[in-house]
Design brief:
The protein is 45% helix and 17% strand. It contains ten helices and eleven strands. The strands form four sheets. It has a four-stranded mixed sheet with strand order 6-9-10-11, with helices on both faces. Strands 1-2-3 form a three-stranded antiparallel sheet. Strands 4-5 form a two-stranded antiparallel ribbon.
Length: 280
């Protein structure tokens, strides 16, 4: 739903630009002969691949039944009129489509399924087990789930996020803190069962499982922090390929950050990734 809304907003802006551009051209100064005519039109004939252009309007057709013939050096008049006609039709089509999109966007805002439950009074809510509950309820239930995390090897540095959970690196702390700061619900190292074609199921532990509220799904953020270690890189590639084989594709349900000793985690790139993909 989030993706659809973004596409509709982008289309709305595109249509508004078309309407603005065609409206501006409508206000431009017209050729003098056209400005004096009522609803000028162009009639085109084609005989033996030779096209002829005739200027038509109520005033002209009183004198010339089929319109006034335009000489070769007057073809610019035909171009001006047909271009104007095209732009008027384009603006009307854009305005019609824009109205539909605006109504749809308003409906998406106001006719939320969650409102069906929310609009009941407190006493009736107590009698209902909502199929589609308020967003806050869904997030709370999702965050409260229990699962077995990976253990930390003895001697591993203890690094804690602002939320108070232990992570494996300073970069993971940065990621976790940014997600938490932006109100993005996530679970750290939640096990994920992957079904590979013609192979046994395997369990992986994405660094961050994120609840994509707008699209009602889970997505995954992996951070690869030792990209100058070739053995580590090979494991990372295998993990990414495993995700891809099970339909978890980069840019859709899988997002990746990485770093090396020479190139540490770029926080600006991270913030941009979070803003583009996880904030409604």
């Amino acid at each position: 739903m989030k993706k659809l809304k973004k596409e509709l907003i982008a289309e709305k802006r595109y249509l508004e630009k078309i309407i603005e551009k065609t409206t501006e051209k409508e206000a431009e100064k017209k050729i003098e002969i056209i400005s004096k005519l009522t609803n000028p039109k162009i009639r085109i004939t084609n005989r033996k691949d030779i096209r002829s252009y005739y200027l038509c309007s109520p005033e002209i057709c009183e004198q010339f039944k089929g319109g006034q013939y335009l000489k070769k050096d007057e073809k610019y008049i035909a171009k001006e009129i047909v271009q104007k006609e095209y732009e008027e039709k384009l603006r009307m089509a854009a305005e019609k489509k824009l109205k539909i999109i605006e109504e749809l966007l308003e409906t998406m805002e106001n006719d939320s399924l969650e409102l069906v439950y929310q609009n009941y009074n407190l006493y009736r809510k107590e009698l209902i087990c909502p199929i589609v509950g308020p967003q806050e309820m869904k997030v709370r239930d999702w965050l409260s789930q229990t699962y077995n995390k990976k253990t930390f090897a003895e001697g591993t540095p203890e690094i804690y996020t602002e939320h108070g959970e232990r992570v494996r690196s300073k970069s993971e702390k940065i990621i976790a803190d940014l997600l938490y700061k932006n109100g993005i619900p996530y679970l750290y190292e939640k096990p994920l069962l992957l079904s590979l074609p013609n192979q046994k199921n395997i369990i992986v532990y994405p660094d961050f499982t994120i609840l994509d509220i707008a699209n009602r799904r889970e997505v995954y953020l992996e951070h690869f922090g030792k990209m100058d270690d070739m053995e580590y890189v090979e494991k990372a590639i295998r993990k990414i390929n495993t995700y891809e084989k099970t339909g978890i594709s980069q840019g859709d349900k899988l997002f990746i950050t990485y770093e090396s000793l020479k190139y540490p985690l770029d926080t600006r790139t991270l913030e941009s990734l979070i803003r583009r993909n996880f904030i409604s």
